[in-house]
Amino acid sequence: MAELATWQDVQSRLLGRTLTVPEQDTVTVWIGDLESDIRLRIPDVDDRILEDPNFGNRIKRVITAVVKRVLDNPKGLRQSTVSIDDYSRTETVDTTGSSGVLGFSDLDWAELLPITSGDAWTIMPFGAPG
Length: 130
What we know:
Blueprint: H1 7-11, H2 21-41, H3 45-51, H4 53-72, E1 77-83, E2 88-93, H5 106-112
Antiparallel strand pairs: 1-2
């Protein structure tokens, strides 16, 4: 079983930010969680990567993007307001960019499992003559 991504892959996409050792450990665990999700939905992932190395690159890109979303916005906030006198704090959760939850979005899965043309929505009459 090949490793689908590493913490180094994530760090290389963070635009100059270096992960601390505790972050490296956490990111490694997150990647393992995401790999488990992929292996459940795509059991033959290793075979697919051997057949098409670009598929492996796509998986790496999607995994690192998911981890990066959580690292960039761990609380999943769209807006945060802080007032000083008579203290006030307002936080609005952003469910479109990053909910702060580690997991693949529908768009991520669509990139990993693109829809191929087929007869998915073709209605075949049952019992038709001929």
